[in-house]
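pinging the channel bc i need a second pair of eyes. not urgent but kinda urgent?? the chain im working w is below, pasted from the shared doc
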Amino acid sequence: MSRITMITTDTANNEQQALLAAIQAKLGMTPNFLKVFANSPAALRAFLGLHSIAGEGSLAAATRERIALSLAQQNTCEYCLSAHTAIGRKAGLAADEIAANRAGTSTDAQAAVAVKLARSLVANMGEVTTAELQEARAAGYTDADIVEIITHVGMNILTNMIGKASHVDIDFPKVAL
């Protein structure tokens, strides 16, 4: 049971109702972690804005999901691991790729470098080495791509923290850590 209230259409104020309705219209569902975010409409708007804009970047959807899967495992967020397993499958990730991502790598050589960098960013609180940045560049990532990887790491840390702090009920097919 969630330790932070999940806002529903029955309990939402007008602003929260509008946000939840927009999410429902876009996704066809309202994930529980967004119902937790809805406690603060400002926080929910901030997350949705960052998520939307970051999705417009140069990183492929599959690579973004690889990063999310890897960090959910690294940060032990079962909610996010379950959600991103389902989303990753929709993005075309096969079971062996999802397993590799959870282990901190990828079957795709370039994506493996992004996943490795993402995990290092978390493990070292951003203090990655020059060699790691050079490895990303050698794999074909530009500085813009590297900044996007960092952005996705930040977003995933945020959602991992919401998931873990709230103990939000998992509303995706459950995947154990």
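so The radius of gyration is 16 Å. and The chain has a mean pLDDT of 97. — does that match what u expected or am i reading it wrong
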